[in-house]
């Protein structure tokens, strides 16, 4: 889902003619879709390519049965279409920004330690714990 | 000497033979030295590196002919902040596993990251030190992959707009390796968080994770592919370590993993504009290992080229194995990893002001390159310059000694000679001894003005290092003032000659080497206090027989 959204976002930007070239091209780099075609004319609802369900599921480490894939496909298509609709928004007089909802001003934290008090609860919540380590399935480093 | 290739440096005969060899590497296109690969085929891997290096020197030189290596380095610097990058968990290396964790760094749902201001300070410092352009506005992105040491399923990093980019790093190659000044390009510096530590249980049936390190701030420095030899790469790493330590942004400790270098090595026929297929080499725990790993990898690739098997060089990650001095395939790259980067929605952009950047710039200490140039202008030899600027504590001590009026060359000699020998012996660092820069300058002055001689100076130095105190008090306490009265020395010489008639006879019969014996006896009789110049002058006259 996130992936579908992510590859949708850059396209959104193409709807408006580029004013801030730097920011724009860098946004585009974010798209991981191998079939990215900068065709602003084709943008609009349904103008985005249909999501590749098996690939999305694989990236998210979710196993889907063919039936489930069939069931989810139109739902995800709907999300993509929604992003397609956003492309119709006129951005002509909007200053491009790196991020949405930036509250200028300090959002930083002082480098002061505050150990988390309820460590026991965290450890408790671990699915598999082998004191003092978290136990996970075997991961091979070398082949 | 924390320079690279310590083992090599301790072997004078080795680097004497290597000087010519490394000199040829001064002209960047051609790396005329490679080690090991050839030697490994005929020599036991465990054999002393030096002899292998020597044995394979010629073969290696012959083998690289016609090819050049292209090396780029990605360095991860762990920042020595008190807390993690995005949560307030304290981090200390070696803490009880999974003890410094919280819902944020463990990736629990509903938690939000808040950036540690100190991380930005460190990034701007290092960015400036690497002569980079600093981005007034940068942002964080999510790099997504699945691995058990990454609780959130993504790493918060910077993708398309790093905090610093387009810089360079200046350094001086050690004299033993031909010397020379180098400038290597820096592509970018970005902020990101570290992953946890993954361990493999002994039975191998499962793996273990320690998440203390998860979320610890890192700066990743990406170099341009500007290096051509293992030495250049190792020196680049060493200079990054120096910068990190000078700036105080990290401890730069490679053994603890606070400084990690991943190198990309490719080889191409000289004159070919395109790069060859690059191979990533990891798992080097010292600069000397970096140098040897790269040289091995270069030889391996050139050999494949020469045997028309260049297609066997594939894009992959190889691990350096220190015990066999070889690299081994870790994993083949299956195309480009798809990290599905997208802007981190939980963090606002990082906005800097020029006032802030100026403030950081003004707070920065003199950096190694500036120090080296300053020392060079004092007329010190490049070997002295590199040594003194290598460790900022040593440089501080040296500078402080000069501020007390000491002569640069003499101060350098004392620090690099007797003081360093003592430190090495006692495994101390220069800021842990009781000798102060003021007393070193006093010592130098006392020798210069003839109050004491050099030999006594050495004795006083050891006393001052171990027990502290002042040069004056030690001289007075032990009555060490140099005997500079010719009459007094003449009296001692006469006595010694009278006490050793047999030797005197031999001397006059032509065994002039005995002058050293007499000089020693006189010095001993004076309790080491005789002025050596006067002693030798008077002794020589007396021996000639002007009795």
Notes on the structure:
The complex is a heterodimer of chains A (143) and B (547). Helices cover 40% and strands 5% of the residues of chain A. Chain A is mainly α. Chain A has a domain at 2-86. In chain A, strands 1-2 form a two-stranded antiparallel sheet. With 547 residues, chain B is of the alpha+beta class. A 9-stranded mixed β-sheet of chain B has the order 2-6-7-10-1-11-12-13-14. A 3-stranded antiparallel β-sheet of chain B has the order 5-4-15, with no helix packed on it. A two-stranded antiparallel sheet of chain B has the order 3-16. The interface between A and B is large, with 47 and 60 residues.
Topology diagram in text:
The complex is a heterodimer of chains A (143) and B (547).
Chain A: H1 2-14, H2 21-29, H3 53-59, H4 66-86, H5 119-125, E1 129-130, E2 133-137
Antiparallel strand pairs in A: 1-2
Helix pairs in contact in A: 1-2, 1-4
Chain B: H1 6-9, H2 12-23, H3 37-42, H4 49-64, E1 67-78, H5 117-129, E2 133-134, E3 137-138, E4 141-144, E5 154-157, E6 164-172, E7 181-193, E8 197-200, E9 206-210, E10 217-223, H6 230-247, E11 259-269, E12 279-282, H7 287-306, E13 316-321, E14 326-332, E15 342-343, E16 350-351, H8 354-363, H9 368-377, H10 382-390, H11 392-403, H12 408-426, H13 437-448, H14 454-467, H15 471-478, H16 486-499, H17 501-508, H18 515-525, H19 532-543
Parallel strand pairs in B: 12-13
Antiparallel strand pairs in B: 1-10, 1-11, 2-6, 3-16, 4-5, 4-15, 6-7, 7-10, 8-9, 11-12, 13-14
Gist of the model:
Chain B: Its EC number is 6.3.5.-. With 143 residues, chain A is mostly helical.
């Amino acid at each position: 889902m996130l992936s579908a959204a992510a590859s949708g976002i850059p396209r959104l930007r193409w709807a408006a003619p580029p004013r801030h070239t730097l920011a724009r091209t860098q946004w585009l780099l974010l798209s991981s879709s191998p079939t990215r075609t900068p065709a602003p004319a084709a943008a609009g609802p349904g103008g985005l390519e249909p999501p590749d369900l098996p690939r999305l599921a694989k990236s998210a480490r979710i196993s889907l049965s063919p039936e489930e894939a069939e069931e989810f496909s139109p739902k995800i298509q709907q999300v993509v279409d929604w992003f397609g609709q956003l492309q119709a928004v006129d951005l002509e007089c909007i200053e491009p920004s790196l991020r949405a909802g930036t509250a200028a001003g300090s959002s930083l934290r002082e480098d002061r330690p505050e150990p988390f008090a309820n460590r026991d609860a965290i450890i408790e919540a671990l699915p598999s714990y082998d004191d003092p380590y978290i136990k996970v399935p075997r991961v091979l480093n070398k082949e | 000497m924390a320079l690279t290739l310590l083992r090599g440096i301790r072997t004078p005969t080795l680097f004497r033979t290597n000087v010519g060899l490394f000199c040829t590497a001064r002209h960047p296109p051609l790396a005329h030295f490679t080690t090991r690969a050839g030697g490994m085929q005929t020599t036991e891997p465990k054999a002393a590196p030096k002899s292998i290096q020597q044995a394979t020197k010629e073969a290696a030189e012959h083998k690289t002919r016609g090819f050049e290596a292209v090396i780029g380095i990605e360095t991860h610097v762990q920042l020595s902040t008190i807390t993690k990058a995005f949560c307030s968990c304290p981090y200390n290396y070696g803490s009880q596993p999974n003890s410094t964790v919280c819902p944020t760094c463990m990736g629990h749902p509903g938690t939000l990251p808040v950036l540690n201001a100190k991380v930005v300070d460190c990034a701007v410092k290092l960015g400036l030190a690497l002569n980079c352009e600093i981005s007034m506005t940068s942002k964080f992105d999510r790099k997504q992959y699945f691995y058990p040491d990454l609780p959130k399923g993504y790493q918060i990093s910077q993708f398309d707009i790093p905090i610093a980019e387009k810089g360079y790093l200046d350094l001086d190659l050690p004299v033993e390796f031909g010397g020379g000044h180098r400038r290597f390009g820096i592509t970018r510096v970005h902020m990101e968080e570290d992953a946890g530590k993954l361990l493999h249980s002994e039975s191998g049936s499962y793996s273990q994770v320690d998440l203390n390190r998860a979320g610890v701030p890192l700066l990743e420095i990406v170099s341009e592919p500007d290096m051509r030899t293992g030495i250049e790469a190792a020196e680049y790493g060493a200079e990054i370590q120096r910068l990190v330590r000078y700036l105080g942004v990290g401890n730069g400790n490679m053994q603890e993993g606070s400084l990690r270098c991943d190198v990309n090595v490719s080889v191409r026929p000289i004159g070919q504009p395109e790069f060859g297929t690059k191979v990533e080499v990891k798992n080097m725990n010292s600069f000397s290992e970096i140098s040897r790993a790269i040289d091995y990898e270069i030889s391996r690739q050139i050999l494949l080229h020469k045997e028309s098997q260049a297609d066997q060089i594939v894009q992959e990650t190889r691990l350096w194995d220190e015990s066999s001095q070889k690299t081994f395939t870790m994993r083949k790259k299956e195309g480009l990893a798809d990290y599905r980067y997208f802007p981190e929605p939980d963090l606002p952009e990082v906005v800097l002001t020029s006032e802030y950047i100026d403030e950081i710039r003004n707070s920065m200490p003199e950096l190694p390159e500036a120090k080296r140039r300053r020392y060079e202008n004092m007329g010190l030899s490049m070997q002295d310059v590199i040594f003194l600027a290598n460790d900022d504590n040593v440089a501080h001590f040296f500078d402080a000694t000069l501020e007390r009026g000491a002569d640069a060359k003499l101060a350098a000699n004392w620090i690099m000679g007797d003081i360093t020998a003592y430190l090495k012996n006692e495994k101390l660092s220069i800021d842990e001894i009781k000798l102060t820069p003021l007393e070193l300058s006093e010592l130098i002055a006392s020798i210069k003005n003839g109050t004491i001689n050099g030999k006594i100076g050495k004795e006083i130095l050891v006393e001052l290092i171990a027990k502290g105190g002042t040069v004056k008090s030690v001289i007075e306490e032990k009555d060490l003032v140099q005997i500079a009265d010719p009459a007094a020395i003449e009296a001692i010489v006469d006595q010694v000659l009278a006490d050793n008639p047999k030797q005197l006879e031999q001397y006059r019969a032509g065994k002039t080497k005995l002058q050293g014996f007499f000089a020693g006896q006189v010095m001993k009789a004076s309790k080491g206090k005789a002025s050596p110049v006067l002693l030798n002058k008077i002794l020589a006259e007396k021996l000639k027989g002007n009795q």
